[in-house]
Amino acid sequence: MEAINEVHVSEPGLVVVDVAAADDETAFAFHTALAARWATTSVERTTRDPGQPGVRLRCYLDLRQTLDGPGQRPAPR
């Protein structure tokens, strides 16, 4: 994985999540679970490290912004 960019953790509540999973389906399912609760970046693909098992995925979360549910609209503060 690439180095973490300072802007992605520049304030409390911003999180970088690196996921290692057995397969794409598992990695995307985990991302979907995160995205149902918090504002996250979208992800379109996983990566594979040569010689390493499974797949990897990186996304960025904003824990300050909770979501209401399926429509993913920010909840009022």
How would you briefly describe this protein structure?
This protein has 77 residues and is an alpha+beta fold. It has one helix and three strands; from the N terminus they run E-H-E-E.
Task: Explain how this protein is built.
The structure is a single chain. The chain has 77 residues and is α+β, with helices and mostly antiparallel strands. Helices cover 16% and strands 30% of the residues. It is built from 1 helix and 3 strands. The protein has one helix spanning 24-35, and strands spanning 14-21, 38-40, 55-66. Strands 1-3-2 form a 3-stranded antiparallel beta sheet. It is flat. It starts with 13 loop residues before the first strand and ends in an 11-residue tail after the last strand. The model has no long low-confidence stretch (mean pLDDT 83).
